[in-house]
Each structure stands twice: as C-alpha cells, then as structure tokens.
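Forgive a beginner's question, but would it be possible to get any protein sequence you like and the tokens describing how it folds?
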Amino acid sequence: MGKTRTWFRNAIQLKGSVVGEVFPRTVICALFAVLVTVLQLAGYQLEVPILTNLLPSIVLSLLLVFRTNTAYERFWEGRKAWGSLISNSRNLARLMLVAISEDYLLDRQTKVEAMRLLPAFAIATKQHLRHAPVDSQLEDLLTPRQLQELKTVNVPPLLIALWLNTYLQNCFEKGNLDRYQLTEMCRMLADMVTAVGICERIQRTPIPLAYAIHLKQLLLIYCLSLPFQMVAKMGWYTVPLTALIGFTLLGIEEIGNQIEDPFGNDPNDLPLDDLCNIMIRNIDDLIRLNEPKQYAN
C-alpha cells in the first residue's frame, strides 16, 4: 500500500517535473486545436489523412529514440564518472592511512591534512563544473594559504591533485612509502583527475545545434498537425487530445534538455551536494577510527 501511495504522490508531484516548462507550449497547441476545430465545425474541411502516417514515424524515431537515449547516456556517464571519483578517493584514503608510516606526530598531522584534500577535490570539482567560485565550503578542509591559492587557478581540482601528488612523492622520498604503494596511489589519483576530464567533456560537448533545432521543428510541426488528423472524427475532443499528446512529447523533449548537462542545481541533475557530503563523512570516519599511536619525540 505504501508503494501505491508513493507512486500516486510522484505522479502528481510538480517539483522536479517539467510541467512548468511544458505547460505554456501545451496551451499553444491546445489553442491551435481550438482554432482548427472551430473552422472544421464552420464547414471548412481541414482533415489531412496523410499526416496520420507520415509525420509520426519521423518525429517518434528522431525525438523519442535519439533525444532521450543520448541525453540519458550523458547523464549516466556523468554519474559513473562521479562514482569512479568517490570510489578512488575512498581507496586512496584507506591506503594512505594503512601504507604511509607515521614516525612522528607531525607525520600524522600532515597525513590528516592530505586526506582532507580528497573531499576538497570532490567539492572543487563540483564548483568547477557549476562555474561557481571557490567558497566557504572548502574552509574546513584547506589551510587559508591553500584556499587563497585555489582561487587563483582556472581548474581548482587539478591544483588539489598536484598537492596530493607532491605529498605522496615526499612520503616516498622520506621512506614512509615504498615504490609499489606510490605507484598504486598515483594511479588512483590519476583516475580521479580522469573523472574530472570526463565530466568536462560531457559539459563542453552539447547536443549538436542542428539536431536540437531540427528536433524542435519536427516536434512543433507534429503537434500543430494533430488537430488536422482528428478534427473530422473527434470534434471538440480534438482539443484535450491535442493537449495531452503535445504535453507527452514536449515533456520528453524537455527532460532531455534538463539531463544532458547533469552537473547543475536543477532537481533532475546529479545530487552532487549529497555526494560531496558523503565524501566528507567517509574521510572523517576513517580518520576518527584510525587512532594515532604513541609517537617518538
């Protein structure tokens, strides 16, 4: 019973839906259907049977298949990239705790500061993809000097990756890390940087403009042709049927528009804020559960 209530609640939910964007276009289609119906009832023969078979096949194949599949593929690829970023961050944090030896208290403090760079990397990536400035979200994870330095670069996560790389190299040179562990950690860090590149590629490669325009034109033609297909047999029922079909197709097109760049703040975008908060909690848990030992003076 609970699932049934949830289904109906989701069906009538406006937040996160495309009703607001699609409704004005649906009204235009309905008004056009009213005009066609009035003219048909006034004696004008406006039915065009050929439209029933020709246009739907073009619109449905190009719009529903191409638009929906390509938009969702971009959405899912972005989610996989963020999944890879989080997974590699967790594994890198785990290896840093276990593999990097701590001979002095300063070693422990430096390691903790380096581990906090991992959630900082995720937050900086989120802000970079949203074209947002470096802000207070990073204050608890970075030193004031690092925060100021981060504000001067064009790709903040790349600078954080450089800091991590430098820390790992220093650990190797001091003998706190062996060559094989260094190689594995650097590979994970490289995969994190690769995930950022994947997200940038998705964001900076929009659906070709010619496709976007052509699909909108075909959709408009189809929606405006609906009254001519139905008016002779359906009469005034043509208006609500046109509105319903138009709402369905326009809604699919709008969903494609919203999810093709999944890194923003819209309800249908990826929950990047939640993913970054998960990263912070994961790293804090690892640091807290890995109790420091007694160090040499």
